């Protein structure tokens, strides 16, 4: 999907995690379990059967008691990526769906390169997650999965998140335009999703994917609008007053999501199709990296 130089740049990045890992597969993340990595964690008293090489003889000389050095064990962490595959994502000169796929691919590569476990979700088919682990060798399989995804119909963001299969602390990334009528109108509380993820010990990163044409409209006159998900038609006349009203509602919608993220210590990033992909990935998404 990307050239070799681009992958080299991705390899320098690492995703920031909000919780220590508690998974059992070997990886590069600090775990809640104790092990034998190079990073010291704590002391405990010697017990029969402990590795004698881990006895702190200096402590023995001072205290006349045997103590064992414990170290942090490095484990893999799950990175869950939820991809909005509704019809509204298939919009724009550069489609939102294309940007979402590119972001999912790049973030997955970063995770796999750091020996994290990636779980991809098509938000219309939450019952069929696509897990990949074992480092970069699984990346080709992941790309094949992404290439087969179709964007159509509608989704229920809240229902999708509540159906996630979460067993361990990790990072959950939401890739969506969030153009759910209930979210836009405020009848559905966006905070509820973030509260659920926080309760399940997930560090949430909300990547709000919108088309440049949605952020900077230039529509004037009488228009026939078609809802891409329901195919409902609406004839409207757009003047300066209507355009200003649209911009105000758009800002209210975006700020509402951003404020919910701030309230639940989740990361929010606006991902516009009008921004050069390099700038978006390496500059504007810096808040999701451990750098």
Structural summary, described in words:
With 291 residues, the protein is an alpha/beta fold. The protein folds into two domains: 31-74, no CATH class; 78-288, Rossmann fold. It is built from ten helices and ten strands. The relative contact order is 0.15. Mean pLDDT is 85; it is low at 20-24 and 29-37.
Please tag this protein with its features.
10 strands, alpha/beta, Rossmann fold, 2 domains, 6-stranded mixed β-sheet, 291 residues
Report the mean per-residue pLDDT as an integer: 85
**Spatial strand arrangement across the major sheet:** 5-4-3-6-7-10
Structural class of the secondary elements? Answer: alpha/beta
Distance between the termini: 25 Å
CATH 2nd-level architecture of the largest domain? 3-Layer(aba) Sandwich
CATH topology of the largest domain: Rossmann fold
Uncertain stretches of 5 or more adjacent residues: 20-24, 29-37
Supply the CATH class of the largest domain. Alpha Beta
Number of domains: 2
Shape: elongated
Beta-strand content: 25-35%
Number of strands: 10
- Write the element-wise H/E pattern from the N-terminal end onward: HEHEEHEEHHEHHEHEEHEH
Main β-sheet description: 6 strands, mixed
Instruction: Name the helicity range.
Output: 25-40%
Radius of gyration, CA atoms, in whole angstroms: 23 Å
The count of helical stretches stands at 10
